[in-house]
Queue: 2 jobs
Job 1
Amino acid sequence: MAFVVPAEIGHAPYAAPVLDWFASHFDDVQLVAVRQKLFANLSEDVWLLYADGFGGRTGHFDLALHERFVFRSEPPLADTRVSVREWRRWGSRLRPMLLPSRVRDAYERLRDSEQTTSLGRVADVGIGYVSGANDFFHLRPSEADELGIPGKLFRPTVRSGRELQAGAITEETVAGWRENDRPNFLLALGAETPLTDAVRRYLDSDTGKEVRQRYKCRVRTPWYAVPHVYVPDLFLSYMSGKGPALVENRARCTCTNAVHCVRLNGRGVTAAQLRRRWETTLTSLSCEVEGHPLGGGVLKLEPREALNVLVSLNGDLDSDDERDLKEGVEILRRWRHRG
């Protein structure tokens, strides 16, 4: 059997049972990873999957790495053989096998050492709130003034990963939002919040009557109370080009589900320390290993993936490890078409 399959076969959770099934039903299973697009006009990257010897089973996958597709009458020779056990040790992902073995060895050694920890051991990662109607619940300062809604009812909020450019969201950042009349202020009404006449008029406006019928608003009580409005210690972008940004929340802002909330769990790491260690080569490679490409050079990091990202605890890497990990970052970025 031969298939053209999405490149997600190398990392997606749904790929694991597929490859498990092939390994338990065929003598030979081979994947061919092709870096350059087979279909230039599609955003989807694809790999090739071969299976032979139906009725048998195998304890490994053969993986061939190719820069571009070249027609062959037979499957190409494999560059590496990955045991099913090793595949499972890497989270049932084949994408890390795009790395040279010495890079994987260095990464595994550091992962298992006392020199590193995972983000999930020192922090919780979750999504921000879902308002159900962003344009209605987020107002510009000028709009709030015109409507007569008190400023104390608004919470400054990060609405986009594009706002995570600097190392921290500060009071100066929020002041800039106000000065530039940005719609970065959430109308944060709770179930027990007294509603002023101005607020009632806004909620009962034509737009408010339309918004309360939307699904997210319709299923909550009261409809205007946006749930899960947290003040995290840091913000983490979940779709990025070069790599995910981790930014301190010094201004006690909230955030939408366009970015992740990171809340420290009190295990001895401060927000400033965590942000500094996030900028190491080790963490850059770990984001590439744990995250997954979306196409167009974009890397996505889901909360469950972010929990596994490695962070160095004490000091810099030795020169050999630094060199190997840097090479790994460059390789995986090239495979997701990011220079």
Job 2
Amino acid sequence: MIGREKEIKELEKLYSSKQAELVAIYGRRRVGKTYLVDEVFQGKITFRHAGLSPLDEEPKGLLRVQLDHFYNSLRLHGIESEKSPDSWLDAFFMLEKLLQGIDDGSRQVVFLDELPWLDTPRSGFVRAFEGFWNTWACHRKNLMVIICGSANSWMMNELINNHGGLYGRVTHEIKLSPFNLFECEEFYKSKGIPFSRYDIVQSYMMLGGIPYYMGYMNEDLSLAQNIDQIFFAKGAKLKLEYDRLFESVFKRPEAIKAIVELLYTRNMGYTRKTIAERLNASDGGHLTKDLNALIASDFVVRYVPFGLSKKEDHYKLIDSFCLFYLYFVKNQTTNNKRFWQQNSSMPQVVAWRGYAFENVCFHHIDQIKEALGISGVITSESAWTKKADDEEGMQIDLLISRKDNAVNMCEIKFYSDDFVVSKDYYRTILRRIEMLSEKLSSKMSVYSTLITTYGLKKNEYSGAFVKTITFDDLFR
């Protein structure tokens, strides 16, 4: 298995404990939650069940279909002389009987996948699961129940942060994140895909380190050919993924997509108030839940831009797949199956790479801090855009504000060669340092930092940057 060393150790330790464990694993759709459990507990799962996607309404009703499917799983695992349960209370009672009947004292692992899908409207699922755990399961010292779900907001609200009967019952939680660049490189190597680091970064700009998406890459094709096969060819693998992504995870998919598509239009994002105004939406409960759901699922991040108060926090779209899809795929008017091969050098794509590389850097702050030698320093990260009014306008790609009275002013440049500082750009950097210093305490020092692909070409102006970070640093 690529990566996941920390998560594997945690799960193995929990498996060896001498008490009942209720483990919640959550993360973005396609990030590899099920694969992780299957690999760690191969041959050790006593009972497993996966909820059915609620996308397709069945004539019998979703509750009936889910209960019948659960009953089929019980039968596969050996339950006898029972009829399909009429409620989730009955279903979990049948599971208790099954587990009790085969209990030989060894560790029993119950794996319930896509748990949020089981909680259909008016089904009473959460209350039944609460009864299963509190009345019976938590007293079985050899029982380990693993629950997974891609609907992160449901996992957080109904289980991990539950204020009712399940309050404090989850004994361990694991949030599974997408691969970083180092893990992406290891993944491609394991598949025999000979991508350079330059190509791997570009693939991250499109797929965001999602293992399931990366698995579509063909070792016999170039990166550009692969992208055409995945996004633009007839029957492309991820052509319909954008809509499925939201419909399968969120209760209000259209409202969620409206927020995502608004945030996409501005790199630094918008305030909550602006989002409500632009979408003509009530600034109330639904908007709060939708924004929190997007944050919990790693599609959006909430941050305070430099120089603003905490009341002016912004919501920024950071999901690489969504950003790429909305930029190039959603509004495609032609069926050009070689779109990426034929247009990879056009100005629109070159400009997109610049913005997309900034997003890659935001996802690799830990690696950037390590390269700067400040891993142990508390920091906050943001962008800074100063509107041009009576003064000069300015935009800084990334500011790392440090508790050791320093700020790294980062310029992010995606180039196919060493970056060259011109005389004009040198003066621009000096002016930005001056303007930023005016906004900071006199105790704070500003360090100009270049984050680029291959490095900085030495010339009479390269001293504009006191530190340079390259691809190799991001792949740590």
